[in-house]
Design goal:
The structure is a single chain. By secondary structure, the chain is an alpha+beta fold. The chain has a 3-stranded antiparallel sheet. Strand 1 and strand 2 form a beta hairpin. Helices cover 26% and strands 21% of the residues.
Length: 84
């Protein structure tokens, strides 16, 4: 997936990845990242390769044990990465 990137939203207190979206360069991507920011997440943009090899392999990936009582926004639950 050369040239593809993923936005990762992390909880600021613990660093767990709790939101992800493929950067398709469209309005939906922008809206999702905006929701991540509104939810107080720290945003990073990583290559598809880094996402596959590192982020998705993190022990707490999309299963933060530190934020169990926090509601999940629509953006955070939209974790279907569809490479194009």
């Amino acid at each position: 997936m050369d040239g593809k990137f993923v936005y990762v939203g992390r909880e600021p207190k613990c660093g767990c990845a709790v939101g992800i979206i493929t950067d398709n360069g469209d309005e939906d991507t922008g809206q999702c990242v905006t929701e991540f920011i509104a939810d107080g997440l720290i945003i990073s943009r990583v290559s598809w390769q880094e996402y596959v090899e590192k982020v998705s392999e993190e022990k707490t990936f999309m299963a933060c044990p530190h934020a169990q009582d926090q509601p999940i926004s629509a953006a955070q639950s939209n974790n279907s990465l569809q490479p194009t």
